[in-house]
Amino acid sequence: MKNLWISSLLFFLIMSCSNNPEAFIPLINGYWEIDQVTLSDGSKREYTYSDTIDYFSVSDSLTGFRKKMKPSFDGTYTTSDDAEQLTLKVENDSLNVYYTTPYAKWKETVLMATEDELLIVNEQNVRYLYKRFQPIVVEK
């Protein structure tokens, strides 16, 4: 019985740590703030505060957009009409995000996504660690 319990626990741990890129897709939607950036040389920059956050919206067709949002203390957001159009593709066991604007096209890869964290690397090997944005609402 003890061996069955240990085997079940190990199976659960292995499955929960699997790096299935398709499982990342539903977790991307929402508001994210950059927590840390790791440059290609390994140096890191911590973000204790940022006045903008990224909003990702992905539809069932794996297309959508990313937009910079500025949260307010009343729970609302301000933004411009600018947005980066995106397409998600699972390729070679990775989830790639292809962005398009009138000025540029580029690719990023989702390395990890959970309910609370999102790790993305760009083509210059810069890693962006996001944490799920939790708004601060000041009641009147």
TrEMBL record:
Annotated signal sequence range: 1-23
Pfam families registered for this protein in UniProt: Lipocalin_4 (PF13648)
Keyword Signal carried by entry: yes
Origin: domain of life: Bacteria
Domain Lipocalin-like: 28-118
Keywords linked to the UniProt accession: Signal
Name by which UniProt lists this protein: Lipocalin-like domain-containing protein
Organism: Gelidibacter sediminis
